[in-house]
Amino acid sequence: MMKKLLSGIALVALLAGCASGVKLDDVPVEDKSATSSGPSTTVVGSGDSQASSSSVAPVLADKSGTGIGPMGTAHVVLFDYDSFLVRADARPVIESHARFLQANKQRKATLEGHTDERGGREYNLALGQKRAEAVRRALSLLGVPESQIEAVSYGKEKPAAEGADESSLAKNRRVEIRY
Fold it and tell me: 112 vs 12, 120, 149, 159, CA distance in Å?
């Protein structure tokens, strides 16, 4: 009996020693399947003779990776340097996406937080996550269920614009809303 107890304690100690402190839930995952070369929009179902006689409406497919979302609305929320506060000029964009998500309960949005190249990798991943969470909170306050939105961070790993000038850096401080 004592031998089994000591064996059990040794097994628990061994497993505890193998445990990692890294939280895998907080690690962003990059989807490499989206390999579009740039934004373009295609109308699916138009142009053939059967589409005109069909009762199926054409579907707008956005090849830029943002997916179908509110038409005519930006999919990017910009941020000030070293900040995760949602700016006032982002309010119409967030409100439009909130209305879209509330009207389309089956849709899910991924909020991708990004930073410019300044700062270390860990700092920028944390800042990108805070930016994505700030947009997530704003959408939640507008009535979007938490189950429809996910916040991830890419830090400085996926710049929207190359270059070290302020204009390029400003384009990289963003949250992209993808469907």
Answer: 39, 18, 11, 12
